[in-house]
């Protein structure tokens, strides 16, 4: 069985910030879960509408955005990846199925009305995203719940000591992300 990732450090967060297509602070407005069969595997599709309160990274993001995830309890994950062509052209996509061993693939934990900070990756359809790390079992899932103004990681990993001081409030955590984004710009 694969152990969870080590505690999330600032260095790991910096890598994730660099990989993210968009980073938002938002509120979960709507959640729809549907049973779905893909490639003969039963799973769930989760569609989430997120009201964007603050856009930290990304361009062309509307006031609301849509998160879509599909997961199977037996470890089979399907992701659409672009073939030659634009992400907005569905005919240029190919389905990739990956079998994983160990624990179930990670997916977001959405609750209506909850505020979150999410690092997002485009999934191939215009305006549709998934959290960075979703569909894996050995990466950090880049969704952070905001509870009582404190930042809470998803339950399978914890914060390292260097991040704990920034997780004490939403403002401090957002400022840490802004600092990591600014450092990247300064290096260019």
* Coarse structural class: alpha+beta
- Helix share, percent: 10-25%
| Overall morphology | globular
How many DSSP E strands? Answer: 9
* Poorly predicted parts: 75-102
- Rg from alpha-carbon coordinates: 16 Å
Number of helices: 3
Ends: how far apart? 41 Å
Task: Provide mean pLDDT, rounded.
Answer: 76
Please list the strands of the largest sheet in the order they lie side by side: 1-2-3-7-6
Question: SSE string, helix = H, strand = E?
Answer: HEEEEEEEEEHH
Strand coverage percent: 35-45%
How many strands, what sense, and barrel or not for the largest sheet? 5 strands, mixed, barrel
Any chance you could write out the topology, listing elements then pairs?
Layout: H1 10-19, E1 22-38, E2 41-57, E3 64-72, E4 76-82, E5 93-99, E6 115-122, E7 128-131, E8 143-147, E9 150-153, H2 161-164, H3 170-187
Parallel strand pairs: 3-7
Antiparallel strand pairs: 1-2, 1-6, 2-3, 4-5, 6-7, 6-8, 8-9
């Amino acid at each position: 069985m694969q152990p969870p990732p080590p505690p999330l450090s600032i260095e790991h967060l910096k890598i994730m910030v660099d990989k993210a297509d968009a980073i938002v602070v938002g509120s979960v407005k709507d959640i729809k879960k549907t049973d779905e069969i893909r490639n003969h595997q039963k799973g769930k599709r989760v569609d989430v509408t997120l009201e964007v309160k603050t856009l930290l990274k990304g361009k062309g993001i509307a006031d609301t955005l849509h998160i879509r995830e599909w997961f199977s309890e037996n470890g089979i994950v399907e992701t659409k990846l672009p073939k030659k062509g634009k992400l907005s052209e569905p005919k240029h996509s190919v389905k990739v199925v990956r079998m994983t061993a160990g624990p179930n693939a990670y997916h977001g934990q959405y609750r209506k009305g909850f505020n979150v900070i999410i690092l997002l990756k485009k999934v191939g359809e215009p305006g549709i995203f998934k959290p960075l790390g979703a569909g894996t079992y050995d990466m950090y899932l880049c969704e952070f719940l905001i509870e009582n103004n404190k930042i809470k990681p998803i339950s399978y990993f914890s914060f390292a000591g260097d991040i704990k001081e920034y997780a004490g409030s939403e403002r401090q955590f957002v400022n840490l992300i802004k600092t990591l984004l600014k450092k990247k710009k300064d290096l260019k």
